[in-house]
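Entry type: protein chain
Record version: 2
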Amino acid sequence: MPLPATELHTSERVVVLVSCVLSFLGSSLLVCTHALWPELRTRPRQLLLYLSLADLLSALSYFYGVLQDFDKTSWDCVLQGALSTFSNTSSFFWTMAVALYLYIIIVRGSPTGTGLLCCFHIVSWGVPLGITVAAVAMKKIGYDASNVSVGWCWVNLDAEDRVLWMLLTGKVWEILAYVTLPVLYILIKKHINRAHAALSEYRPILSRAPAFQPRTSIADKKLILIPVIFIILRIWSTVRFILTLCNSPAVQNSVLVVLHGIGNTFQGGANCIMFVLCTRAVRTRLFSSIWCCCCNELDLASQRSDGFWQHPEPHKDVPAPERIKSVLSST
């Protein structure tokens, strides 16, 4: 006997909606910093930009789904399900692309050109798009009773091969990421530790030589945290998927539902915390810009206030040329 639909309480929906908003704002801030400050456009941050774009679309589609809390398949349910399927799957691929890039540049030490980036684009955008188009064309996207989602639409509950399409439209890539990312992360970490050990052993020699420039930048090292955060956030979705396959009523546990909702929607917010608020160069520039804007507003308000309360000097004793200079300098 199939499980009944999972009923979402108002408090659960509010928490997930807030998570969507925070992820949207975080992803938007990452995109804005990339657009405003060209000197920060390194290759790692370029990859982070594409991941942020996928998370941005994901947050918007999930927000609409949770807000609507669909109870049947409709045209907007299919549209929302298609957008979230594409963006969510693309986020999986870009997360693995980041880890693969780090492995190539840090461990292998191989130079990376535009060819690798083109491959990342073809796979990370093209594969999710192809899967999503096929799922929509075969009418596999629709209402799923919130047993493998949190209010939004995904794979149609009435599809006979729904488990296969759940795997193709997300779960198989998610599980692949669980296996691939830790392996790459461990290899990267071991390489960094060996490099640090070698540097420590030869520090007396290096101290007399020119300053040692490590191949890995701070941004590269921080990007290692993306796979770790990915697993922490996404694991709850996988747990509910397995519980659904086992037909377990635990899939409707309120805590699990909330963790699933936050995990699927907060990737953009987590990336913003790491790569904007916890990155000194970006944080300093961001706060400086905010401070300058605030100071300019205060100066403008002060000038208006001074101009309102101060009475102008009479012009009859001032030579005409000096009055002209005074007017021109104030415009």
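Comment: Residues 206-216, 311-331 have pLDDT under 50 and may be disordered.
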